[in-house]
Amino acid sequence: MLLWQLACAYRLNLGFITFANTPAPAEVLDAAIKLTQSPKLWSHLSSSLLRVGAGFGLAALIGVTLGLLIGRLPLANKLLLPPLEVLRPIPAVAWIPLAILMFPSSEGSMVYITFVGALFPILLNTIHGVEAVDARLIASAKGLGTKGWRLFAEVIAPGAAPSIVTGLSIGMGTCWFCLVTAEMIAGQYGIGYYTWESYTVQAYPNIVVGMLVIGALGMGSSALITWAGARLMPWQGAKR
Can you tell me which residues the record assigns to a coiled coil (predicted)? Predict the structure, then answer.
């Protein structure tokens, strides 16, 4: 922090990097205080949180469901995994122009971008979690008469739960990344839009404030998933 402050104060220019226009920590702190007092703060936060909640919720529901099916059923693996693998390498930000064309509202397009960003980490981790479930547990459950959906609910899903929670946590991080990018292009409110607008109006300290808010929201939401996972998997704590 001190080096950052000094570099900005003396407008340090090293050739490959310059601090001539970079906001100093003191300016960022002042901008953060002003943002907390701004009536637009809640509009930005609520817009981003609603978009992330909707996109991530859909990705979690579809990703976990497909992951359980693909990881367990050979037919689902053969039919569903190849087309999903074709779509997986496409960056979520590459969907932005098509999403704008597909959805009549910008809100729909931004939610879709967050959904795409979160889907594949959740899906792949769920598949790997299902495939890693000890075959002896499944055989024992079948020997005791467990089959069908009960086998999924009572054996496979709990066995894959650690990987599922990891996928949810990773998916939440990519969800924020994709949302911010989408808001920069199609948003009117949101933390991503606030960050980009700050650059266009040359309010440079606000850029850093927006970045820090995004980081805090991403860290907090991932920590919430980890906390919820620990509550849902008490046996994991017992192993440590």
Answer: none
User: Nearest-CA neighbor of 110 among 11, 9, 183?
Assistant: 183
Q: pLDDT value at position 239?
A: 55
How far apart CA 122 and CA 65 sit, in angstroms, is: 10
Closest Cα partner for 80 from 132, 129, 134, 126?
Answer: 126
Q: Determine how many CB atoms are found less than 10 A away from the CB of residue 201.
A: 9
CA–CA dist 33, 35 (Å, integer): 5
Report the C-alpha gap between 144 and 114 in whole angstroms: 42
At residue 134, does pLDDT exceed 90? no
Q: Report CA 231 to chain centroid distance, whole Å.
A: 21
CATH, range 41-233: 1.10.3720.10
Q: What is the pLDDT of residues 37-79, one digit of tens each?
A: 988 888 889 999 999 999 999 999 999 999 999 998 899 999 9
Q: Would you list the domain boundaries of the chain?
A: 41-233
Q: Assign 18 to helix, strand or coil.
A: strand
Question: Which pLDDT band, with edges at 50, 70 and 90, does 185 fall under?
Answer: confident
CA distance 60 to 24: 39
CA distances (Å), origin 93, targets 82, 97, 105: 22, 8, 17
Helix (H) or strand (E) run with residue 170 in it: helix 157-186
pTM: 0.86
Contact 25, 7 (CB under 8 A): no
